[in-house]
Amino acid sequence: MIQDNPTLISAIRERFAHVDACPFQGERIFFENAGGALTLKQVAETSSFYAAIPDNPGRINPAGQGTQDVINKAKSDLAVFMNATSGQFFAGESGTELLFRLIRTACVAVEKGTKVIGSSIEHPATRSAARRWAEIAGLEYVNVQHNDAAGLVTAEDYAALMTPDVSVATILHASPVTGMGMDVAAISKAIRAVSPDCLIIVDGIQHAAHGQLDLEAYNVDGYAVSPYKVFSRHGYGLAWISDKLSAMPHDMLINAPATGWEFGTRDTGSYATMSDVISYFDWLGGEVAADETDRRARIEAAGRAIHAYETRLTQTAINGTGNLPGLRDMERVQIIAGEDNPAREGLVSIAVDGIASEKVVELLNQQGIRTHTRKADHYSGNVLDPLGLPDCIRISFCHYNTEAEVAEMLGVLKKLVEEAA
């Protein structure tokens, strides 16, 4: 496991750019991973290489054919990474843009007068798209209220509001505000138990970096990720869609292939960098499961190791280490979604009574600790408003962080809270 292997932690950190220093700030500890993970050094090299190639993928010349081969390989790699045995992968502007495309297509294609179901825990990427296109398409939107105290929604919550006329459903895999992961497979099963043909679309943007993905187990029709949150770079999103959704009427060029979803010339570098990311998961899986020979099994082992280590980091933050009190023992500190929540995925959000979250984040940043403020706005109000919180501080970890970094954060925050008392 990662936590018991300092040599492996060093090897992991060596593979990431700016792991302990920012080119604008200098030395810093990066606990803003939910806003965008660190980038693999190999991703930066790959991006630079393909950015300089002028040829269009697929053209009948060596560069055109070579870059098309790179794209095809990346799609094959993604199928292994996400355990997809059918359907297709394609890139778009961003994870959010792709979710809008998938949800729009689904809502327009289903029968008028049916229903769209989603939950109040969802990021506005899915909630906004579902509500907008439900109204345009003449569908009823059904909201599943999440559990405020637990910071998540369950299969039972969906089941309570399911009816046979639900034709489209959206699911959030993990919340970027509470940090809690949803049981997508169980929610999907609950939906299909009542409406077997429902089109189910999942926002996997926050979850993807924190453990393995398994589309075969989820039994859904769409899944979107933002690669900059999975160790790649900004500027594109990736989606997988089922054969069923692929064949539905959608935005496309006249007389283009009926199942084509890609627009314009492909960015070879975006696909190639995902191959780099998947190679990294493969490498890590080999380190934690040295006897494993199957690539998918190594990727699954990497996901389990990442989840276990990030659980260790969050528990250290919550419970403390050495003579440093954890967040749960600091006066005036409130932990959102509870102190002992097994659904937590590498993220702890807190509020400090009497100090604005922006001020806490600013003071932490002055001490070289990067965190982030979430406000009760159009992004996070659905979670914070029911808790009576105007804002919170999000402390988000990834498997290249260390317990020593967590300890330093706790020491700085303890002093900050005590001085403000």
Automatic annotation (TrEMBL):
Keywords attached to this entry: Lyase, Pyridoxal phosphate
Domain of life: Bacteria
Entry keyword annotation includes Glycoprotein: no
Start and end residues of each Aminotransferase class V domain: 29-407
UniProt xrefs under Gene3D superfamilies: Aspartate Aminotransferase, domain 1 (3.90.1150.10), Type I PLP-dependent aspartate aminotransferase-like (Major domain) (3.40.640.10)
Coiled-coil annotated residue ranges, if any: none
Gene Ontology MF terms: lyase activity
Protein name per the record: Selenocysteine lyase/cysteine desulfurase
Species name: Shimia abyssi
